Amino acid sequence: MSYSEIKRLIDIFLSFIALVVLFPLFFLISVAIKLDSKGPILFKQKRVGIHKSYFYILKFRTMRVDAPNDCPTHLLEEPDKWITRVGKFLRRTSLDELPQLWNILVGHMSFIGPRPALWNQYDLIEERDKYGANNIRPGLTGWAQINGRDELPIEIKAKLDGEYVEKISFLMDLKCFFKTILSVFKGDGIVEGGTGALEKKKEIISE
Q1: Residue 36 belongs to what domain range?
Q2: Do 60 and 34 contact (CB within 8 A), yes or no?
Q3: How confident is the model over 122-137, as pLDDT tens digits?
Q4: Structurally, how many domains does the chain consist of?
Q5: Among 6, 113, 115, 151, which residue has the least CB neighbours within 10 Å?
Q6: Contact indicator for 113, 142 with CB cutoff of 8 Å
Q7: What is the rounded CA–CA span in Å between residue 111 and residue 136?
Q8: Strands 54-60 and 42-48
Q9: Three-class SS state of 139
Q10: Radius of gyration of the chain from Cα atoms?
């Protein structure tokens, strides 16, 4: 049995257990979202999956219902303007990503892999093609996420995704998993404004 097959079995088992165990947390978050703002509990968005197929990623809604759709957060001029109060907490703690356990269970995603690009992030998709990073299942977290997260420019992010493809293994996945937990607790690399936001800030300061 290949590692990709073993990885898929692990994904199914762990995502099912996590969905059952975390059900009370899902309920509490759902109530908080409904009390905080109008709109649905879940947000779904078209993303790029394995072999550049499309699927709809699930997240807890963190933005107002009138926020621009299919637009990466880093392209919004004032991202904080659209994020709800509960949404800020969910994004800071990455709890908004929990519904993707369902995406993992049904096979759209894996626990570890490149973060799925928006269908219209053509620059990121093209860069990932150079490294074969579009040919594996996208992940809940990945090598790029533990090496910079939101502040990475697209070229570096795609290169790191390529490094993961080259080194993919059980030990590599364990490393990504535990370092992700550490990064979430520390809040490393979270920049509201998304990919390359820190670089943009540095450019403004230096001018």
Answers
A1: 3-206
A2: no
A3: 999 999 999 999 999 9
A4: 1
A5: 6
A6: yes
A7: 12
A8: antiparallel
A9: strand
A10: 17
